[in-house]
């Protein structure tokens, strides 16, 4: 399995790995480079350095962020990174994977949460999913109901009943990380119709962005978020992919 790579003639793909353990950074960099020789990796060992590199390094495609680093609380660093480079997805890499922590990271703008216990196949698949516009959640999240709250996730049978069959089909594809264009093509609908369905889904779930809808979809069983990390979209960087916080 390979990381999706840039098309010929495009600028090389660049990842930022931010982790205060040098051995982990080195191991992850070697794994990623073995899978994609064209990949450029820059490294940070604390939150301050991660913010500096995010501000100065051009063409970043993804940021891999550890939660336990010196400099500041991660709850401040993650929103700061999202504000600094809003178009660059931030994926959490953590030795901790409690559902409450995962949901908090997603709420603060993370595009994925990969436990450090994951093998390379899961990690690469998760990164491809995120690069394709999806959100990767670890299996432990869908196995636990303890972290749910109605205000954030609105997960109950009454909410599910508000979705039409077509909206449930759209929700499954949103959970797979599909763009509106891909959903329209898959269901033989116009993009405008898909956008209307997505808007209705967000309203029915009581959420305001696609990321929260993906979390809700996972918990409701509508979206089969890939436990192996294998994306439903091709292993490439879609030219029309959009941040999951957008409707279109």
What is the alpha-carbon Rg in Å?
A: 17 Å
Number of domain units: 2
**Looking across the biggest beta sheet, what order are the strands in?**
2-1-3-4-5
CATH architecture of the largest domain: 3-Layer(aba) Sandwich
CATH topology of the largest domain: Rossmann fold
Kindly, what is the distance between the CA atoms of the first and last residues, rounded to a whole number of angstroms? Answer: 29 Å
Tally of helical runs? 12
Proportion of residues in extended strands: 5-15%
Average pLDDT confidence is 76
CATH level 1 name of the largest domain: Alpha Beta
SS-based structural class?
alpha/beta
Helix content: 40-55%
Q: CATH superfamily name of the largest domain?
A: Response regulator
Which blocks of ≥5 consecutive residues have pLDDT under 50?
145-156, 224-248
Protein traits:
248 residues, alpha/beta, Rossmann fold, Arc Repressor Mutant, subunit A, 2 domains, 5-stranded parallel sheet, 12 helices, disordered C terminus
Question: In words, what does this structure look like?
Answer:
The protein is an alpha/beta fold. It has two domains: 14-142, Response regulator (Rossmann fold), CATH 3.40.50; 150-220, Arc Repressor Mutant, subunit A. It is 46% helix and 10% strand. It contains twelve helices and five strands. Strand 4 (90-94), helix 4 and strand 5 form a beta-alpha-beta unit. Helix 2 runs parallel beside helix 3, helix 9 packs across helix 11 and helix 10 packs across helix 11.
Concise synopsis of the structure shown:
The protein is an alpha/beta fold. The chain has twelve helices and five strands. It folds into two domains: 129 residues, 3-Layer(aba) Sandwich (Rossmann fold), CATH 3.40.50.2300; 71 residues, Winged helix-like DNA-binding domain superfamily/Winged helix DNA-binding domain (Arc Repressor Mutant, subunit A), CATH 1.10.10.
């Amino acid at each position: 399995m390979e990381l999706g790579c840039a098309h010929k003639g495009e600028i090389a793909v660049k990842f930022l790995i931010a982790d205060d353990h040098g051995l982990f950074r080195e191991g992850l960099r070697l794994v990623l480079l073995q899978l994609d020789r064209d990949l450029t990796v820059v490294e940070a060992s604390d939150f301050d350095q991660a913010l500096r590199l995010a501000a100065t390094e051009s063409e970043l495609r993804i940021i891999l962020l550890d939660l336990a680093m010196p400099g500041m609380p991660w709850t401040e660093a993650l929103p700061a990174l999202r504000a600094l480079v809003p178009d660059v997805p931030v994926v959490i890499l953590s030795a901790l994977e409690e559902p409450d922590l995962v949901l908090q990271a997603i709420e603060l703008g993370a595009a994925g949460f990969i436990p450090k216990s994951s093998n390379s196949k899961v990690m690469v698949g998760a990164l491809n999913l995120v690069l394709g516009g999806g959100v990767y959640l670890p299996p432990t999240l869908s196995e636990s109901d303890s972290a749910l709250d109605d205000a954030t996730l609105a997960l109950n049978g009454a909410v599910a009943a508000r979705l039409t069959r077509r909206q449930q089909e759209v929700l499954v594809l949103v959970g797979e990380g599909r763009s509106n264009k891909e959903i329209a093509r898959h269901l033989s609908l116009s993009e405008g119709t898909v956008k209307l369905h997505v808007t209705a889904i967000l309203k029915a779930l009581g959420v305001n962005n696609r990321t929260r809808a993906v979390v809700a979809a996972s918990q409701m069983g509508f979206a089969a978020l890939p436990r192996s990390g294998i994306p439903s979209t091709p292993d490439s960087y879609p030219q029309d992919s959009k941040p999951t916080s957008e409707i279109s």
